[in-house]
Amino acid sequence: MEEMKKTGFPENFLWGSASAAYQIEGGYLDGGKGMTNWDTFVRIPGKTYKETTGDVAVDHYHRYKEDIALMAEMGLKTYRFSIAWARIYPQGTGDINEEGITFYQNIIDECLKYGIEPMVTIYHWDLPQALVDAYGGWESPQIISDYVNYAKTLFRYYGNKVKYWITMNEQNIFTSLGWLTAQHPPGKFDDQKMFYQVNHHAFMAHAKAVLAYREMGGTGLIGASFAYTPSYALDCRPENAMAKYNYDDLKNFWWMDVYAYGRYPKAAMAYLKEKGIAPVMQDGDQELLKQAAAAISFMGVNYYQSCVCEYNPMDGVTPYGTMNTTGVKGSAQEIGIPGIYNNPANPYLKTTDWDWSIDPDGLRYCCREITSRYALPIIISENGLGAFDQKTEENEIHDDYRIHYLKEHIRALEEAVTEGCEVLAYCTWSFTDLLSWLNGYQKRYGFVYVDREEADGGSMNRYKKDSFYWYQKVIQNNGL
């Protein structure tokens, strides 16, 4: 559009940062917590960078007061964190673990003490291992009732203090890496039919949790967070434009349409039925999905990169190329679906050391598309840069590259707001350094440097990076 006079961010805009329980807490068996699928998975040789685990992580379990005090010093308006299901129900269901209830009550109270709005993610990938052992976890429809029971427990204990709820974090990622590429639990490869069935179970769990929240009198905001990778056609050739459309139906709208409309994209469903891998739906599922869609409050977006689409011939690349988990630039491979689309590199964009394209305007694109397609408010629940940060002998961390990355993304977000997008919050990933799932601790995202490496140990001392002071000023000036 023609250059418009920027409106700035709303006065009540929530400047925040985010984390996930498994990636920061540690204390993996402390306080009565049960084992999770990730506690089990990381013990399989070769699954993570240098065999790193979240057993200790960055010890937030014992240092949460210190970390939240740093958030307060920065001036955060909101802190998005997840609750570990296995801390509340060590066996996934059954008896409640009161120590776990108290731990998260303390985190919520500590945030509120400083005027920080707690934003709770109900599920961020760490599933109680007991449910996997009992019936296969997300592979069984039984997971739906157990998840809803868990969510209702959180609503009952914390609903009077928590106004923002995220049901699922990146459902598209934990299911694709778990059942298609074997990189996440349960480590299954190319099980496409189960992949779509697992997603349907997750959709139903999300929907029933949303409806339960409303039925229990919840008046806060609730929705899911989707890992959104917007796409651009490689060029104006019709086959590449159609490749983009097919990519969006299969990789973006398959999730967002269910969250916002309560239905699957028709073309994608027709394709999956032809392939014999469409999910099986029970009587009443469609109506419940639609009811939940009418009851959500926002579309959560985790944005890191965009992609390019071109037609992929039948003998072209597959979805199973190598992912860069080492930080060796250029080691990632192209992926796609034969006969549908391919995702080549974008020659106009720079990339991170992990081969993720850096595209601030993609964030604006995301917001515009959600606004036009769904007319929903937006919460940017994750956005950040993973990098090799170095601490000097003076305990300083000069991460000007992170400042530049975030500055450009906030600029693009402000343009989206100017163009009519209703954005409620912007949460960076992450506040402190943390375990980056498959990438270990070398891939640092935080404003706060944590003194630890791949092997457990290190002082765990916290050091403020240059970006800490920069974001502090951003918050003080409401994004100006």
From TrEMBL:
Pfam family for this entry, one: Glyco_hydro_1
Keyword hit for Acetylation: no
Matches recorded under InterPro entries: GH_1_N_CS, Glyco_hydro_1, Glyco_hydro_1_AS
Keywords carried by this UniProt record: Glycosidase, Hydrolase
Domain of life of the source: Bacteria
GO molecular function annotations of the record: hydrolase activity
Active site: 382 (nucleophile)
Family: Belongs to the glycosyl hydrolase 1 family.
Protein name, per record: Glycoside hydrolase family 1 protein
